[in-house]
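Apologies for my clumsy wording, but could you write out the amino acids of a protein and the tokens describing how it folds?
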Amino acid sequence: MSTGTNRIFDEFARLMTDAAGTAQGLRKEVETAFQAQAERFLNSMEVVKREEFEVVREMAIKARDENDALKARIDALEAKLADKA
């Protein structure tokens, strides 16, 4: 009777192993589907990616610095013109 019991336990263990593998595969499939759906949703909302945001932010900082430098030059030129007049 012990070999019959061992065989039942072996079959049960194999069944549980197969079920665990199937559940893990299903989990990965659901995660992939969820990620794809979330990405589609975000794309439809036209959400900007972090990298793109950082690039535009750096461009804005550079443009602001250039504007400040140009304003200083204009102020200096206007001061010179006022002195000559």
The CA atoms of residues 18 and 24 lie 10 Å apart. The longest helix spans residues 2-44.
